[in-house]
Amino acid sequence: MRPNQRRALLKRIGAAALLPLARPLFAQAGYPGKPIKLIAPVQPGGGVDLVARTIGDRLGRVLGQPIVVDNQSGGGGVVGSLATARAAPDGYTLMVGYVGTHGTNPAVRKLPYDAVKDFTPIAMVGGTPNILVVPPALPVSTLREFIAYAKANPGKLSYGSSGPGTLTHLAMEQLKVASDLDIVHVPYRGIGPAITDILGGQTQALFPGLAAALPHIKAGKMKPLAVTGLHRHRLMPEVPTFEELGYKGFDGVQWYGIVGPANLPAPIVKRLNDEINALLENPELRERLSGEALEPMPMTPAAFGQYIRDDIARWTKLAKERNIAIVD
Question: How far apart are CA 111 and CA 107, in angstroms?
Fold first, then answer.
């Protein structure tokens, strides 16, 4: 074979070897080329669903492709999380990861997914404190009165949660331990149905995120007793914090972010993170989120990943100290 023929052959072989790499890179450059599915691992209603639809609508417009919200509830977020973890890492299946799926759940129970290894952190959206609420018919108006009433009626009261292992569950269990209360846990498939039942009087307490509870509090359908965090919330300045009422450690945040399956290509992650962070700087969206008690918390993917790891460690420590564990 002549030298020039050998060189031509080597060039063709080299070009053929690069084709498998070129196709994914081309696909990433043209991302997105079709609708994106955004899994909300809860039933419609509540903070997770609100974030999914608010961010999904605006992000879809920016990307030029519709983002379809897919509510996959069950197991305190396990069903939707598994569906996301098992999806192809191509950027067309995303999920609203939140404190339940990527914070409290991994801390208190054995899960069929790894909240760190099986996901790609994309962007933090924001957070809201949790607030203890009761129905108007319950004859209490303060946290102290509620605790006294619960102690006078051991085993007779029930509280709802958005599922085992979620912050709405763990925070109430934390209060039960701190106050030595006997209250029955009623888990739901998401915060929406849990809110429906407390509004209907089927349960007597709930510890939802302020974003989910705010409309019902304003409508007089829930009585707020105390809020998590170190400072009173600007939208509920009349509601005291657990801290000022003498309860330490009640400073959890109901946070929400966007995650995808593990091994999402870096260019896709960067594109999504850049666009979501830009949206969070938009005054109209910030006002919309703030009006729902959600404070924007833009982060890089790396910072969001570290936040998830720190939150899991935080709740794992608390669960061990309080001896809180869930056996399915």
Answer: 10
Q: What tokens appear for 192 in the block?
A: 């929406």
DSSP string over 217-262: HHTTSSEEEEE-SSS--TTSTTSPBTTTTT-TT---EEEEEEEEET
CATH topology of domain 35-128+254-322: D-Maltodextrin-Binding Protein; domain 2 (3.40.190)
**Which pLDDT band, with edges at 50, 70 and 90, does 10 fall under?**
very low
Residue ranges of domains in the chain: 35-128+254-322, 131-227
CATH superfamily of 131-227: Periplasmic binding protein-like II (3.40.190.10)
CA–CA gap between residue 195 and residue 161 (Å, rounded): 9
pTM of the model: 0.77
Per residue in 134-175, pLDDT (tens digit) is 999 999 999 999 999 999 999 999 999 988 878 898 899 889
Q: Give 263-303 pLDDT, tens digit per residue.
A: 999 999 999 999 999 999 999 999 988 888 888 999 999 99
